[in-house]
Amino acid sequence: MSRTRTARVAAALALLGVIGVAAFLILTRVHPLDATALPDHAPDVAGGEVLFHAGSCGSCHRAADGAPGSAEGLPTGGAGFPTPVGTFYPGNLTPDDETGIGAWTDIDFVNAMSRGISPDGGHYFPAFPYTSFRLMPLEDVLDLRAYLMSLPAVRSPGREPDVPVVGLARRGVGLWKRLAFDDRRFEPDPSRSAAWNRGAYLTNGPGHCGECHTPRTWTMALDESRHLAGGPHPGGEGKVPSLVGLVARGRYKDVADLTLALQFGETFGFDKLSSGGMADIQMNLAKLPDSDVQAISEYLLSLD
Ligand code: HEC
Ligand code: HEC
User: Fold this and answer.
1) Which atom belonging to ligand 2 lies closest to the Cα atom of 274?
2) Residue 16 to residues 4, 8, 21, 23: CA-CA distances in angstroms?
3) Are 43 and 168 within one domain?
4) Percent of all residues in the chain with a pLDDT value above 70, rounded to a whole number
């Protein structure tokens, strides 16, 4: 190859490289909501607490044993959350200004929950189930924030996940969002009862039940054609059972029976409610008002 030819090939490759990097940067940009999207809403702290338990926020965001907040059971973060891509350390959700969400604005919190975007304009990994939380109306997101802001502020610094090439991987989440992330909110079905709709909302939105119970497509999005039909455990812990046809398969007698199972779990002699993260979910569901657990049961038993 002549010198000029080599130089031309090198220049072409460099140009392709620049185009590739530019395309990557453009395709992985964040698309946050603007503060004008916020509804005019007086937050309901008690409603927010229900959503906190429905979402099992306190389980993933729990403190490491013996760390600040662990004795009080506050969501100060820091305990490891292992996934097949690496271990995450969900952060501090108490209103500490420096290490928690104390200095966040409403729109910062809404963008985290609804779009998986951090206040400094980065992407969160979908190990944080914003892929389900995005179904929540913004009023509910603000209620949840008001509840978190009512907790005592505890200093507990966060920690980056142990994920290979974490900076690049985080940016790459932007590509994945283009392929597989849908930011639509929950829409009630007017042909169903208010309880059924409440159950559908709690199950699919804050409850994020589908994150384990719905199998995934090749893009790792939830495969809604097999909604809640069970599949491989996303954390690699065997299989997650189907929630379809629970009565037909003889798993539960009726809504009252499934409600008892969700409220009391295996202590009441029900089985298949303890492994693969389900025990934490069940213990959080036990903190919901009876009517909400009944609503979840009514919705689940309508699936066939
Ligand atoms: C299945 C585990 C899991 C559950 C349940 C969960 N989170 Fe998280 N959350 C995470 C992980 C992991 C991250 C960090 C993601 C990252 O580093 O990109 C995170 C990050 C966040 C952040 C960004 C700030 C921070 O602390 O890192 C907020 C805010 C948040 N979660 C709120 C919530 C709320 C509110 C709930 C309940 C409705 C909730 N999370 C439930 C795993 C979880
Ligand atoms: C972290 C993953 C995960 C999430 C999130 C999750 N589940 Fe489960 N669930 C499981 C696993 C794993 C089992 C099986 C546990 C066992 O066999 O001990 C299970 C079992 C169940 C069962 C028993 C099924 C049967 O055949 O009796 C019900 C009911 C259930 N889950 C409901 C829910 C509801 C409702 C939600 C959302 C509020 C939910 N799950 C969220 C992992 C999850």
Assistant:
1) 18
2) 18, 12, 9, 10
3) yes
4) 100
